Amino acid sequence: MALPIVAVTGATGFIGQRLVRMLADAGYQVRALARRVPAREDVADDVTWVFGSLADQDALASLVKGADAVVHCAAAIKAANRDAFLAVNSGGTRLLASIAAAQPVPPRFILLSSIAAREPRLSHYAASKRAGELALRAFPQLPAVILRPPAVYGPGDMETLQIFRMAARGFVPAPMVDNARMSLVHVDDVAGAVLAALKLADLPEHPIEFDDGKPGGYSWVEIAAAAGAALRVRPKVIPIPAAVFYLIGGLASIAAALTRRPTVLSWGKVPELLHPDWAAAAGAFPGYKPLWDIGNGFKDAVTWYTSRGLLTS
């Protein structure tokens, strides 16, 4: 019997690399979309590569042809403006879903969305992720699962690295927001959630939020303490007023416009950062069991950063 074929977008990204490796280890045939030959040492072997982008219809058709499932990981986390976010996170999803839906036997389609999608008015990114979910739902013939992870960290993540670098210096800046809570999840557990979604017998009608198993998420004090424990330091949390975040975001947006190099932190991202409730409403998710708590997960991330000279612990 032939092994199930899983087509993956975003396979050379932070989450995609780990997912491809875990899919291969679990016995799936992996077919992955990439713009060029992957050079990273962490990319799994025994993967069939399809070269192209989310705007390349021929490449997407080759990617999904005969696939048993499609896992759509590719996404823009930084972009110049709302239209640029929508072009990737909504337009790319719509095109991929339309091609998948046209297959003789439509594959299971797993969309890796974001917890930000539940608050689409807060940022262009959040709006684009919600639009991507709606784009997928426009193809009811696709057996679809929408996953909404919270903030993802772990080996390979260059965004969370900044928090560890600041913690190593003895401080962690945090938004001055009362009772702010946020959930976290290790990248391997995101891959584990995808593996669970591939085996779901009953497909959910609504997006699935999941996390690392900590009810109600974490405060910034708890996050700083866990980062400090992984680094063997005791950083202080420095509350930053909203006005300062807007100032930093505004300056970052100006710099991005001048250099034409978008950044994650921007003026439009600030309302999302200041939102007090990013705790996942995690419920029953058959087959999903997070393996990494924040303590061991942060240590794993620090080990990876230090092994590559990105962080001194």
Which strands sit side by side, in order, in the main sheet? 3-2-1-4-5-6-11
Reading the helices and strands in chain order gives EHEEHEHEHEEHEEEHEHEHHEH
Estimated share of beta-strand residues = 15-25%
Number of H- or I-type helical stretches: 10
Helix content bin: 25-40%
According to CATH, the fold-level topology of the largest domain is Rossmann fold
Structure description:
It is a single chain. The mean pLDDT is about 95. It contains ten helices and 13 strands. Helices cover about 40% and strands about 15% of the residues. The strands form four sheets. A seven-stranded parallel beta sheet has the order 3-2-1-4-5-6-11, sandwiched between helices. The protein has a two-stranded parallel ribbon with strand order 7-10. It has a two-stranded parallel sheet with strand order 8-12. It has two domains: about 5-150, Rossmann fold; about 150-185 and about 215-280 and about 290-313. It is an alpha/beta fold and about 325 residues long. The protein has helices at about 15-25, 55-65, 80-100, 125-135, 160-170, 185-200, 220-230, 240-260, 270-275, 295-305; strands at about 5-10, 30-35, 45-50, 70, 110, 145-150, 150-155, 170-175, 180, 185, 210, 235-240, 275-280. The chain starts with a strand and ends in a 6-residue tail after the last helix. Helix 1 links the parallel strand 1 and strand 2 (about 30-35).
Summarize the structure.
This protein has 313 residues and is of the alpha/beta class. Helices cover 39% and strands 17% of the residues. It starts with a strand and ends in a 6-residue tail after the last helix.
